[in-house]
Amino acid sequence: MLDADVASRALGIELIEIGEGSATARMRVVPTMVNGHDIAHGGYLFLLADTAFACACNSYGPMTVASGAEVSFVDSARVDDVLVAVAQERTRYGRNGIYDVTVYRETPQGHDVVLEFRGRSRTIQREGG
């Protein structure tokens, strides 16, 4: 799925790890991603979180899409920050799922949380069809 995701690839988003119901993706903030306040535009941060979410909820095989999502911007990101998005499944029920994604900035001192994302998924294609 990610190989066909032109938007994520164009931003340099890399999939670092994937497992059943989980995924980790990484992106470097580049100058074309900042807004008039010289911080990363929230849409790019959302896109990184959404990409990790998409990989996690599609990790089981059937085509699964977002049915909704909400974010909380915790801190700003700046040019050259390396951001990591870690997606974890919270629950799946029927064709639905709930996933949490934490986006953090890698620093020499550790991880600074930039964004928290909660996504709701919906499977639209059954296994094998």
UniProtKB/TrEMBL annotation:
SUPFAM superfamilies on file: Thioesterase/thiol ester dehydrase-isomerase
CDD domains: PaaI_thioesterase
GO molecular function: acyl-CoA hydrolase activity
Chain ranges of the Thioesterase domain: 39-108
Domain of life: Bacteria
Keywords noted in UniProt: Hydrolase
Membrane spanning stretches: none
A matching Pfam family: 4HBT
NCBIfam families per the UniProt record, alphabetical: PaaD (TIGR02286), unchar_dom_1 (TIGR00369)
Family to which the UniProt record says this protein belongs: Belongs to the thioesterase PaaI family.
Protein name per UniProt: Hydroxyphenylacetyl-CoA thioesterase PaaI
Native species: Phytoactinopolyspora mesophila
Designated gene of the protein: paaI
